[in-house]
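Help!! Second protein's tokens look totally different from the first
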Amino acid sequence: MPDAPPAALGSLVRLGRWFLHTATIVEIEVRKLAKDPWEMVIRAIQPLLWLGIFGSAFAKIRMLPEGTTDYTTFLAPGILAQSVTFASIFFGITLIWEKDQGLTQKFLASPLARSALVVGKLSAAGLRSLIQGTVILVAAGVLGAKLDLNPLVVAGVLGFTLLGAAFFAGFSMGIAALLKTRDRMMGMGQLITLPLFFASNALYPVAIMPLWLQVVATANPMSYLVDGFRGLLVPAHPAHLGLDVLVLGAATLAMTLTATWLYPRLAR
């Protein structure tokens, strides 16, 4: 068997090193989470309140077409998307804390590839969201949501969770690199999260929205995350998984590239 060309071998070595760098960042983030697991518990409280309180209240409105599904089942994927979005959109605060501690400068001065730094952090945000998502799905089942949880569906939900978390965490990283202070980042996160949530299909079908809000919801990435979850978990809901994956995948790629470009600004 002929030897591999030196160029191809070099590419494999660089690719292997990149994956090692990414795994190193993920390990660092997992160690942080292991030291403070209560953070995940606290972050799960708000979505659980939305699911329990608003699910019970909004069920009385009968906004869904007759014979489709009950409101708790309809709402559960929306709250799952909310937990992914809210957990990821504040990820930039962690980056600003690292900058204030001098860690960002050390990361940038290390041999770690810049893109591996960003992808590792986005992957870690996805792991955090997976933990919260599991809590939400269990709570939804306890509250009576009739969700399809066969292994293929669960695998699809995991994939959408990672995509959605990577997009919103990358978005948060970009904002953090521009704002550079925790107070500004907290204010911006609060300014963004609720409009994203209410201007999506998480709480109500797009068909009952006014026309201008339908346009906003169609341009809202969170709507595609909700639609992906709902298409997988709710058998009565029409699935548009190809479109959802295409939109979220393209948005995540664009945000990853943007975050990689902006990340060094944190050290300035």
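Here's the second one for comparison:
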Amino acid sequence: MSEFPPLPVNDKWIVSMRGNKNPVDPWKPYGWMVEKERTISGKIEDTGIIFLTNRECPFHCLMCDLWKNTTDESVPAGAIPAQIAWALEQMPDLKYLKLYNCGSFFDERAIAQADYKEIASLVKNFETIIVECHPKLINDKCLKFRDMLMPELHIALGLETVHPSIMLSLNKQMTLEDFSSSVNFLTKHDIHTRAFILLRPPRLSESDGIYWAEKAIDFAFDAGVDCCTVIPVRAGNGAMEFLMEKGDFNLPDIRSLETVLEYGIGLKAGRVFADVWDLGLFSSCNKCLDKRTDRLVEMNLRQKIAIPIKCECNK
């Protein structure tokens, strides 16, 4: 497979390409939703997601647009528990919850350790809590939070890609060894892990995008994760549009997402999900978009390969 010199990207350049942030309230989450997910037990359950408002992530990854809903400074003490409490009042009764905060849950500047106890109290009636974190911020703070929880703790980590030079170009500021070490640390302490994997980051052709996403799934499961989520790379943060104009980035095709999901499910090594948000971005065929979306959702939930979609666009 092709090697590429790293793209000349860094924090300063990535930030300079941005537009404006969205207005947010430090005392309320910027969003919440309920979605169905196949849990680690194999059951299909309603799962709540709270999109917490907090300080921007210190890692400025090339493809990230989550900064749009962040504050410039750390939110006040007690703000994160207040956001969770507010969202839980809006939600139906659930057993599974994701706390996603546009960065790393264990970034002290985003979520202070002083708030852990109150957060743990708010979520005590759940069976599972999932948070997200950069592999380099995995440490004993994870254990401290786990020990306060009644629910089981799962942590989602961004692997993104295993292509050596593409990884450097993402400005992720981590190595594959960092990822493996973090998964090993968490597994040793009985914390479940899942991996985020990118489909077709910059500089990869459609076929290479599929190949490297599949290799990343292999790597993640070999490292010990329980679950992988495949995310087709989008534009929308300034930097990615610039790369599109230069010809260094193209949106992946929805059929490639189907292919990678089929591969991952076929491994039977753990759950594999496709991110199905706004799939119209990745389809040039309106005739089969809804059917392909439904097929991806079905495979996410059943973890079985569904009957392929027949359409003229397959020719």
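Reply: Different proteins will give different token patterns, so don't panic. DSSP finds ten helices and eight strands in the chain.
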